[in-house]
Amino acid sequence: MAIIKFNRIRAWLDRNSNPKLAFTLFAVTQVVYFFMLLVTIPHLTEIAAGLKIPDMMPSGFDLNYIMELFTALGQDGRDYYQFVQLPIDFVYPGLFMVSYSLLLTLLFKHALYPNNLINKLNILPIFAGLFDYFENISFTIMLNQYPGISQSVVSAGEIFALLKSAFTTIFFVLLIYGVVMLLFNRNKVIEYNKSISNK
Predict the structure, then answer these.
(1) Average pLDDT over residues 34-61
(2) CA-CA distance, 1 to 30, in Å (whole number)?
(3) pLDDT tens for residues 139-175?
(4) How far is the CA of 115 from the CAs of 103, 149, 194, 199, in angstroms?
(5) Burial call 128-154: b when 16+ CB within 10 Å, e when fewer
(6) Percent over 70 (pLDDT), the chain
(7) DSSP labels for 72-115?
(8) Residues 145, 154: Cα–Cα separation, whole Å
(9) With 80 as the cut, is the pLDDT of residue 191 above it?
(10) DSSP secondary structure of 32-55
């Protein structure tokens, strides 16, 4: 069943991987990302006297750190985190999943031969986005539980954060690989695709 769904997702990406849509969604994704990076996250860091929010800690966090951060934020800071930062961060993963999957699909179409198994990894950003959602849900639960935050929720949140970081890193490796292959293979792939379509 999962394989069928992934195939449907790949088919949708293949149909919709045109430059206009891919780069429009990419631009929107960047706007949301840089708004968080330049506005909401620095505001939280300032309130917390320099402590980073867990989103900016790819190496992980623990219960003691979360307690220290939430205490430093105070009620106003925790409200800002829950009702300003997190709602924006619930929009971002969806944009990330769609825009970056389309971008990889578009890139691979022009850089790789159709039978290259790397093509199947165009859906990898979806996993990064899903774990980002799970991570954000865990942060929401922690904020609602404070000061009686559950160790199990923190541990789950840390696992989701690490998985998000891992899949995001793999995505960027694939992106670089695709760009390099595009530089070397573009004309060959175009000719190959033409020869296939003419048969």
Answers:
(1) 93
(2) 33
(3) 999 999 999 999 999 999 999 999 999 999 999 999 9
(4) 19, 49, 15, 17
(5) bbbbbbbbbbbbbbbbeebeebeeebb
(6) 91
(7) HHHHHHHHHIIIIIHHHHHHHHHHHHHHHHHHHHHHHHHHS-TT
(8) 11
(9) no
(10) HHHHIIIIIHHHHHHHTTTPPPGG
